[in-house]
Specification:
The complex is a heterotrimer of chains A (253), B (318) and C (307).
Chain A (H helix, E strand, L loop, with lengths): L3 E12 L2 E12 L3 E5 L6 H9 L6 E6 L2 E2 L5 H7 L1 E4 L11 H11 L15 H13 L15 H14 L4 E5 L7 H14 L4 E5 L3 H7 L2 E6 L2 E6 L1 H6 L1 H10 L6
Parallel strand pairs in A: 3-8, 3-9, 6-7, 7-8
Antiparallel strand pairs in A: 1-2, 1-4, 4-5, 9-10
Helix pairs in contact in A: 3-4, 3-5, 4-5
Chain B lengths: L1 H6 L4 H20 L3 H25 L8 H16 L5 H23 L4 H20 L10 E2 L5 E2 L3 E2 L3 H24 L1 H11 L1 H6 L4 H27 L1 E2 L6 H14 L6 H19 L3 H15 L3 H8 L5
Antiparallel strand pairs in B: 1-4, 2-3
Chain C lengths: L2 H32 L6 H19 L2 H22 L9 H23 L10 H4 L1 E5 L2 E4 H23 L1 H11 L1 H6 L4 H27 L5 H16 L4 H29 L2 H26 L11
Antiparallel strand pairs in C: 1-2
Helix pairs in contact in C: 1-6, 1-7, 1-9, 1-10, 1-11, 2-3, 2-4, 2-9, 2-10, 3-9, 6-7, 10-11, 10-12, 11-12
The chains are: A alpha/beta (253), B mainly alpha (318), C mainly alpha (307).
């Protein structure tokens, strides 16, 4: 029996009358890749925001490793071991690639109130940043400015930064968003490697990717989980087909 | 060594300027014309204040419109003890730095909860508060200010009474301030500050309590500017609430932007151009403020990146 | 307690509050709609006063002077918007602050150039110059009463325009959601110019109303503009209602603090310390108020919606 690492119970959030999360309960188990799919406006990004602490739910509870984190701010969740990537690329523009990752690394070795030693001469810090970059295939791009990277490389860097915080749980918000096939394949390979050693909650539009990667899938419609189970059971689930046919058409789109 | 080679930080304009500043007293000695000494003194003191503002504004993205408060606090930390005939420089400077730090901590804790325009305005309002606070204390001259009859002394070692001594004291202070800010900005802490300026939301999500880091940076900046204020009090021999008028804060911002905000040496170029322009324009016309104002508008419209940006374009700076 | 003094000071506070509102309403609209920080708003207050001073002198009538000076100030505002301000909207707040700080220097120097370094007094017509018994035993300067009256009239007029006309609807929509207004294909450029000119006229009018009391002088706007900023920050940027309430609040607290704080303090502390602390505290009172409000509501009392 696997251990539950993240447990969401009865989560609700409304924005001025619009229900974004509706009495949602969901478990993520240690070591699994749990994918969340759903049509546009199903409240996927709102859910990630509540899990990472950017917005707080109106009701309900989020337990991470049996600790109640429902109302913790983002930086505290990061310290507990939750990391996220952003759907819309959110990086430190104007800084080098390696500095972006090194910031994520130093955030979690707990020594950021150092005022005198040059951070760029810190070998351990640099090395672990380089390791994280290798993991996502960005080696050789360390000293490039962030704004000079391609869109695909931005997505890779997003993941590298999340990884560099040494998380126990990765929240990936549409890591393939806006990518071509070739770039997408690259990310897919990275994720396949990653899922062997990390617990991942993945939000993704691309169904091929989801079915290729996920151990478990939860389908979100109007902020509610209408089905949850193995990829096979989701594929054949009547309600899921209905929800998708009603809004976006074919499940395999 | 690696830094010198890889980052080409060999900086021609800086070395020339430092050389000139170091040798200026010799020239003055020869010609007996201490006008330039006073000018350079003022320039360097304002440069230190601008360096401190650049720490939060240029590097940290916190647009404080109230930085003149610390000039005032620093100057009064020299003036008020001097009023009670306490001339000990160490005591005065520690007071200046400490009181500035406390003021920065208290006002920063409130101000940094706000964003954007609210931050600009609340920093300005806190400085107005300090301004009116000082104005209403009749004991220390109120509106009219206070004359400092004797400059700081440092035990039996030296005092700042002699203009050349004061000059070198300020000169060394400026170099040390630049060095300190350089080290801070390259440290882990400095990286966090740069990151928070660039993308605060992401910094929080990778685990930084950006509010706390920014507050620490805000306090450091206040302390340094308080120190500059203590030098200013010594230099002018006179202190008045006018030092912390909101237009004085505006001038400091102007220096930082004119020089090139976020560049290490930007404030130095900015303060230098400000002081020299002011001197030059006011010698030509009574209406020099008009051209000063117009220049400000032109800088905003056409020359963001400031002098440091220009220098690096023509290859004189890194 | 001296009731006559209390009533008089309440009225003085109200008068200061309404003057502040005249300045703050333009500021908050420009801020709310164009997202533009205009430090030079106080310069418009100053040139309004100077225009009025000269025009009253030429025409020999204060009222006629005002009547001509208002459209002239509005025109000056419109010219300023079209020639310089418009180019700044796309820049960031720091640029706004810096450029309008430059504008202040330009305006102050121009006034110095055209009108000389001395202030200019404005003579009041006899029927405004006296005092009026508003209650048995309570007299109040007629002119100050007329400031209160004019201020209230403008406040209600503005309220009516903003809540009951189409232009007002656009302005309200613009203050809370800029994209929406431009998405509706409205000529944003002229709307901005109009709003700026109206703001300039109100600021100028405030300057015209104060200068018979204090005289028009260089830099007269530089002090009060900060207080006007305090007002719109307390009220919440873009909110006319917030600006009105905050202006009255600030006017009353400032005036009452200066007159009665020492009396109040004497109840708690010794006479001597009350006399030292009161001036400092009352001078700082509005800033303390603002800091307190922002500590609990970082976006002011009536924060803009939908941004």
């Amino acid at each position: 029996m696997r251990q539950t690492i993240l447990s969401i119970s009865n989560l609700s959030k409304t924005f001025g009358g619009v229900v974004a999360t509706d009495d949602l309960s969901l478990d993520v188990e240690q070591g699994e890749l749990h994918a969340i799919i759903g049509p546009n406006g199903a409240g996927k990004t709102t859910l990630i925001a509540q899990l990472s602490g950017e917005i707080f739910p109106d009701n309900g509870r989020i337990l991470f490793q049996n600790k109640n984190i429902t109302m913790l701010p983002p930086f505290k969740r990061s310290h507990l071991g939750i990391a996220r990537s952003f759907q819309i690329t959110s990086l430190m523009q104007g800084m080098d690639v390696i500095d972006n990752v090194a910031l994520a690394t130093q955030a979690n070795d707990g020594h950021a109130y150092k005022f005198w030693k040059p951070a760029r001469d810190d070998r351990d810090l640099r090395q672990s940043a380089i390791d994280a970059l290798k993991e996502v295939g960005l080696e050789g791009r360390e000293f490039e400015k962030v704004q000079n990277l391609s869109h695909g490389e931005h997505r890779q860097l997003e993941i590298a930064m999340a990884l560099a915080t040494q998380p126990h749980l990765l929240l990936l918000d549409e890591p393939m968003a806006g990518m071509g096939t070739e770039e997408g394949d690259k990310i897919l390979k990275i994720l396949q490697k990653l899922k062997k050693r990390k617990t991942i909650l993945l939000i993704e539009h691309d169904m091929d990717v989801v079915f290729a990667l996920a151990d478990r899938i939860t389908v979100l419609v109007y902020g509610r989980a209408i089905a949850s189970g193995s990829p096979q059971s989701i594929k054949t689930d009547e309600r899921v087909r209905e929800a998708y046919l009603g809004t976006e058409g074919d499940l395999n789109c | 060594m690696r830094n010198l080679l890889t980052r080409k930080s060999f900086n021609f304009a800086f070395i020339i300027s430092v050389g000139l500043l170091a040798l200026l007293p010799l020239y003055v000695e020869m010609t007996g014309d201490d006008f330039y000494l006073d000018l350079a003194n003022r320039l360097m003191i304002l440069a230190i204040a601008a360096v401190s503002l650049n720490l939060i504004l240029g590097h940290g993205g916190m647009i404080s419109f109230g930085h003149a408060a610390y000039l005032g606090i620093g100057a009064y930390s020299v003036g008020i003890p001097a009023y009670y005939e306490i001339y000990d420089g160490l005591f005065q400077i520690i007071t200046a730095v400490f009181v500035s730090g406390v003021f920065a901590l208290l006002t920063g804790a409130v101000s940094l909860r706000t964003k954007g325009v609210y931050f600009i305005m609340i920093t300005m309002a806190f400085t107005q508060m300090a301004f009116f606070g000082i104005v209403s204390i009749e004991e220390y001259g109120g509106d009219d200010g206070l004359v400092i009859d004797t400059r700081s002394t440092f035990g039996n070692f030296f005092d700042l009474e002699d203009t050349v001594t004061l000059y070198y004291f300020v000169f060394v202070s400026l170099l040390i301030s630049l060095f300190i800010v350089k080290r801070i900005m390259e440290s882990r802490f400095g990286m966090v500050i740069s990151g928070s300026k660039s993308n605060e939301r992401r910094m929080q999500s990778i685990g930084y309590n950006t509010y706390r880091y920014k507050l620490v940076c805000y306090v450091l900046s206040g302390c340094l500017c308080g120190y500059a204020g203590a030098l200013l009090g010594n230099f002018t021999n006179f202190i008045s609430p006018e030092m912390m008028d909101w237009t004085a804060s505006g001038e400091l911002i102007f220096m930082v932007l004119l020089g090139g905000s976020g560049a290490l040496l930007g404030p130095l170029w900015g303060a230098a151009s400000f002081v020299l322009l002011e001197e030059w324009l006011s010698s030509i016309t009574t209406y020099w403020h008009f051209f000063f104002g117009a220049l400000l508008i032109l800088v905003v419209l056409f020359a963001r990146g400031g002098i440091d940006g220009l220098l690096s374009k023509i290859g004189l700076s890194k | 307690m001296d009731w006559v003094l209390i009533i008089t000071q309440l009225l003085n506070g109200l008068q200061l509050g309404l003057l502040l509102f005249l300045l703050a309403s333009g500021l908050t609209l420009v801020f709310g709609i164009m997202d533009f920080v205009n430090l030079a708003h106080g310069a418009l207050y100053m040139i309004g006063a100077y225009f009025c001073a000269s025009l009253s002198e030429v025409t020999g009538s204060f009222l006629l002077g005002i009547a001509i000076a208002i459209p002239v100030t509005a025109a000056a505002g419109a010219i300023l918007e079209v020639s310089i301000i418009r180019r700044l909207y796309s820049k960031d707040h720091l640029d706004h602050v810096l450029a309008t700080f430059g504008l202040i220097l330009c305006f102050d120097t121009m006034v110095h150039f055209f009108w000389g370094p001395e202030g200019k007094a404005i003579e009041l017509p006899a029927f405004l110059d006296g005092r009026l018994a508003i209650l048995p035993g309570v007299e109040f300067p007629t002119f100050r009463l007329s400031i209160i009256l004019a201020g209230l009239l403008i406040a209600f007029g503005l309220y009516f325009i903003i809540s009951h006309t189409k232009t007002g609807m656009l302005i309200r929509a613009g203050a809370s959601n800029r994209q929406m207004v431009s998405a509706h294909g409205i000529d944003i450029k002229s709307l901005f110019t109009i709003v700026f000119a109206v703001g300039a006229a109100m600021a100028g009018f405030a300057g015209m109303m104060i200068s018979p009391i204090t005289e028009a002088s260089i830099g007269m706007g530089n002090e009060i503009i900060i207080v006007a900023f305090v007002v719109i920050i307390i009220g919440g940027i873009g909110s006319i209602k917030g600006a009105f309430l905050a202006a009255i609040l600030v006017g009353l607290i400032d005036t009452m603090g200066r007159s009665f704080l020492d009396t109040l303090l004497k109840i708690i502390v010794s006479e001597e310390s009350a006399e030292t602390a009161a001036p400092a505290l009352s001078a700082m009172a509005i800033y303390i108020l603002m800091a307190t409000i922002l500590a609990f509501r970082p976006q002011g009392l009536f924060p803009p919606k939908g941004r």
